[in-house]
Amino acid sequence: MLNTDIRKVVVAGAGTMGVTLTRLFAQSGYEVTLWNRRQVSLDKAKDRIQGDLAVLAEQGRITETPETITGRISYTTEYACYETADFMVENIAEDLAVKQEFFRKICTLVPEHIVLATNTSGLRVTDIAQAVTKPERFCGMHWWNPPDLIPLVEVTKGDLTGDEAARIVYDMAVSLEKKPVIVKKDILGIIGNRLQYAVLREVLHIIEMGAAGPEEVDAAMKYGPGFRYSVLGPLETVDLGGVDIFRAVSNYLFADLGAETRSPVLNDLADQGRLGVKAGAGFYDYGPEEGLEKIRWRNDLFQRQWDLLKENPFKK
Ligand SMILES: NC(=O)c1ccc[n+]([C@@H]2O[C@H](COP(=O)([O-])OP(=O)(O)OC[C@H]3O[C@@H](n4cnc5c(N)ncnc54)[C@H](O)[C@@H]3O)[C@@H](O)[C@H]2O)c1
């Protein structure tokens, strides 16, 4: 029997994902310890969490005071925090050897009956599990960035993950007001990244064929399929549009879709150092404050979109 009475959560890794997850757990009432091997990242994390909570308070999006929420968070570089954890989720570097070394170490410390989760984006849960004692309690918990605003959590079962562990991760996501989906097989890219990259491959193919530029394909996605997909999944879309229509189109279109395994456009951008908002340029150019402004604009729309979806399910 695994522990289902979860109060103390340890978030391992104070990077992009770990910091926001720490705030999310604390906002949802958990006592949370953010563990990182270096203190400097923890100091930055603390500032970031305090700053984010101040903004949320100003927007009226939290019901407790920032001080009440931060009162549930501790920051540490000490491994002792693992000895008293009820649940842990790992968010350290996306590198199999690094993750295995980390789990080998903490498995000597954590209680035997707690669930250990990894936020790996693409590594196989089964491979990381080679370093885990009692691998039936080890499960993927794949969030989407920013994890406080995107509802999906993919609960990925490795070959040895038990149903009980997957259920606990699922319930944990629900308790954080997220939308978990159980993935029964340990497939590369899980579900979300397979979909995202299938679309990206086609978008790059359209640009490489010279049929449209970045602005046109982004607009076509946002105002067409993307607009629809925020409400309906692809299969619900087929049912509403008509299976016969989708069959007729798929019969001539599937064979014409791009199937390249490397994209010249993406490789050229990366080689030129146009790495996106963080570099001030990617497909588009960004002024000094523009990247941050765009992130804030996105966050506000994501929040409102999620509120709208939560408040309006198809069937109550
Ligand atoms: N950024 C995303 O969009 C995103 C989305 C979903 C999942 N993920 C996954 O979450 C995990 C963390 O990603 P991130 O974007 O927060 O990364 P990040 O680079 O921002 O942070 C990584 C953290 O890992 C720590 N770390 C690095 N090497 C370590 C080691 N040897 N031992 C202990 N700690 C070490 C670093 O100190 C840092 O705090 C990765 O597995 C990533 O694939 C990322």
Give the % helix.
Answer: 40-55%
Taking the sheet with the most strands, its summary is: 8 strands, mixed
Q: Please tell me the total number of domains.
A: 2
- The Rg value, from CA coordinates, equals 21 Å
Q: Give me the CATH fold name of the largest domain.
A: Rossmann fold
Taken from the alpha-carbon principal axes, the silhouette is globular
Total strands: 8
Ligand set: nicotinamide-adenine-dinucleotide
**The named CATH superfamily of the largest domain:** NAD(P)-binding Rossmann-like Domain
How far apart are the termini? 33 Å
Q: What CATH first level of the largest domain would be assigned?
A: Alpha Beta
CATH architecture of the largest domain: 3-Layer(aba) Sandwich
Helix/strand-derived class? alpha/beta
Low-confidence stretches: none
Strand-residue proportion: 5-15%
If you had to describe this structure to a student in words, what would you say it looks like?
The protein has 2 domains: 8-183, NAD(P)-binding Rossmann-like Domain (Rossmann fold); 192-260, N-(1-d-carboxylethyl)-l-norvaline Dehydrogenase, domain 2, CATH 1.10.1040.10. Helix content is 46%, strand content 12%. It has helices at 16-27, 39-58, 66-70, 96-106, 125-128, 163-175, 192-208, 214-223, 225-229, 234-241, 243-253, 264-271, 290-311, and strands spanning 8-12, 31-35, 73-76, 87-90, 115-118, 138-143, 152-156, 179-183. An 8-stranded mixed β-sheet has the order 3-2-1-4-5-6-7-8, covered by helices on one side. The longest helix has 22 residues, at 290-311. The protein starts with 7 loop residues before the first strand and ends in a 5-residue tail after the last helix. The mean pLDDT is 96. The structure holds nicotinamide-adenine-dinucleotide (NAD). Nicotinamide-adenine-dinucleotide binds next to helix 1, helix 4 and strand 6.
